[in-house]
Amino acid sequence: MTAEKSQMRRYWLPFLSVLCFAAASPAHAYIAYISNEKGNTVSVIDTDKWAVTATIKVGQRPRGIEFTRDGKFVMVAVGDDDTIQVIDTKTQQIVDTLPSGPDPELFTQDAAGKTLYVANENDNTVTVIDIQKRTRIGSIQVGVEPEGMAISPDGKILINTSETTNMAHFIDTSKREVVASVLVDPRPRFAEFKHDGSELWVSSEIGGTVSIIDPVKHVVTGKVTFSIPGLRSEAIQAVGLGITKDDRTVFVALGPANRVAIVDGKTHEVKKYLLVGQRVWHMAFTPDEKYLLTTNGISNDVSVIDVAAQKVIKTIQVGELPWGVTISP
Amino acid sequence: MSATTLGQARRGFSLAEYTTCLTGIVWREALRFLHQRERFVAALVRPLVWLFIFAAGFRQVLGVSIIPPYETYVLYEVFIAPGLMAMIQMFNGMQSSLSMVYDREMGNMRTLLVSPLPRWYLLFCKLLAGTAVSLLQVYAFLLIAWFWDITPPTIGYLTVLPALILSGLMLGSLGMLISSGIKQLENFAGVMNFVIFPMFFASSALYPLWRVQEGSPMLYYVCQFNPFTHAVELIRFALYGQVNWTSLIVVSGCTTAFMIGAIYAYDPSRGLARRGPAGGET
Fold first, then answer.
1. Which of chain A's residues have a Cβ under 8 Å away from the Cβ of B64?
2. What is the per-residue pLDDT across A118-162, written as a single tens digit (0 to 9) for each?
3. Per-residue DSSP letters for A197-261?
4. Given a cut of 90, is residue A255 above it in pLDDT?
5. Which residues of chain B register pLDDT less than 50?
6. Chain A contacts of B74, Cβ < 8 Å?
7. How far is the C-alpha of A306 from the C-alpha of B153, rounded, in Å?
8. C-alpha to C-alpha distances, A250 to A261, A272, A292, A328, B97, nearest whole angstrom
9. What distance in Å separates the CA atoms of residue A60 and residue A82, rounded to the nearest whole number?
């Protein structure tokens, strides 16, 4: 009987302590910033309330948006003003600009948060910026209409996709030159590395596919295709990508299909489609990866996906034509 | 016998006697339901045909607006599920009323109504029995629908129960009220055409009311005055753990009105039930 009791205690104690911990630690609230391309604003969403808490007036045609690594600032590319504006997250005011070059669209930064690489859509270049000094330190010629930007986990390779050339360019970050180009399906929009660096995923808007590229051999090793009952294939356009930290699940925003596809990171099979708002474009995970936020351009809202349950739990109205999203670290 | 009955009526009845009556009627209805497996299958096939075939064709109709109680975009299948649940209950209510017409024709109704317990209680028990059967059907439908990706929050399966009981009672008492006016089984086809179809189609079961309003403001008002719309909305909100107060008031009011009407109609001493030889209860 005593042995039985002690055995029970052994099982129950860790369970109870986990329960107590779960009860004691409240859910962490994050702040999401959404760029509204047509509204020329940035909407701020509190992930605890799932409501817009502020709207910040920014420059013309805001698209690419990202937090600085220290979480103090949000950088937003305002394409028609040919600059990147810097928002102080404490005051929600624009405090600075970065010399992005003409028509900046998407950008990415290195792991240290020191260097920013910006795709200049109308200039066929990638501009390199020192974030702290706010100065332009170089530029790299790439294909026509550069858009998607990604950096390898080791920081050695920068990827740029060019919409019209239909290529993913591999750029050596130390030499700042293109070392390889891989042809993918028409209009590549977005690129993302798996966290272990083993694969590069590139979405193609017109092709409606996601190409999986071996980043060492520079060859396409696989392709994810999508099919939704009742929808024409032209309506299925792959845009934003979101890969979970364990690389097991990949979320793909399918544009005018109004769906986000859930793809198995290993087998590359589509497991499920989730209905979100109209013309779903880009996505961002909360740092704890509990939720994934999607921007829905035509319906002017943001859908919240419960990552574990693989369900859309809420849709929140934001500004006009939401495009990009970034969430506080 | 009649002297004893009168004596009991004057003294009133014990709770045990009421309970015996209730279990007797519910048990009879349950047995009848279990023995008619085709009826169970038919009750499920009807909404499932709507779900699997009709909804598949209309998939693209919705997904353009978020209406309460939904917090995000929903597929058409998800939208029509509460309407189909209410449809199950409506058909069940009408089926119960059909069985009452049958009972009257066969003379079984006489057995029920000669019970010394008050008539309103007997009819209420009959309604409860019918509602209980409809609950079985609805939950079986929800189980199948779950595999079709219609997955309301878990708590919703519990919170929808009171709404289903209320809507079941409303549709059951409506059926009972109608059955009191039907003399023969053959007339039941008329109920299909004049009651079930108009009530089902002129409601929010298949399309959101804002869509109806866009198409025809007149039809929108008809839908608003249709108690079936409110039964559907009550179920829809309850399935997501919310209360639609307007619908709750309308459904409660209609339930009371239909029930009083049905009890009045089945009173042989007055009202509609004074009929020819086919009416077993006269």
1. 278, 299
2. 999 888 999 999 999 999 999 999 989 999 999 999 999 999 999
3. SS-EEEEETTTTEEEEEETTTTEEEEEEE---TTS-GGG-----EEE-TTSSEEEEE-BTT-EEE
4. yes
5. 1-10, 270-282
6. 275
7. 13
8. 8, 11, 11, 21, 54
9. 9
So what's the pLDDT on residue A12? 46
Q: Do A229 and B64 touch (CB under 8 A)?
A: no
Q: pLDDT band at A212, cuts 50/70/90? A: very high
**pLDDT tens-digit series, residues A57-83:** 999 999 999 999 999 999 999 999 999
Give the best residue of B62, B70, B73 to mutate against chain A (max A CB count within 10 A): B73
Instruction: Note whether B75 and B63 are within 8 A (CB).
Output: yes
- Say whether A311 and B63 touch across the interface (CB within 8 A): no
Nearest to B73 among A229, A230, A277 (CB): A277
Helix (H) / strand (E) element for A120: namely strand A115-120
Hey, what amino acid is at A319?
Answer: G
Q: Round the average pLDDT of chain A to a whole number and report it.
A: 90
- d(CA A215, CA A197) in angstroms, rounded, equals 8
A230 touches chain B (CB under 8 A): yes
CB contact (8 A) between residue B66 and residue A278: no
Residue A23 pLDDT class (50, 70, 90 cuts): very low
Whether A52 has its CB under 8 Å from any CB of chain B: the answer is: no
**3-class DSSP state for residue A314?**
strand
In the block, tokens 């396409």 appear at A220
pLDDT at position A28 is: 67
CB-neighbour burial class of residue B181 (10 A; exposed 0-12, middle 13-18, buried 19+):
middle
Q: With contacts defined as CB-CB under 8 Å, which chain B residues touch A311? A: 151
| Angstroms from B69 CA to nearest CA on chain A | 11
Structure tokens at B170: 């409303």
Please, which residues have CB within 8 angstroms of residue A161's CB and are 6 or more apart in sequence? A146, A147, A148, A149, A167, A168, A169, A184, A188, A189, A190, A191, A202
Structure-model confidence comparison of residues A224 and B207, the more confident one: A224
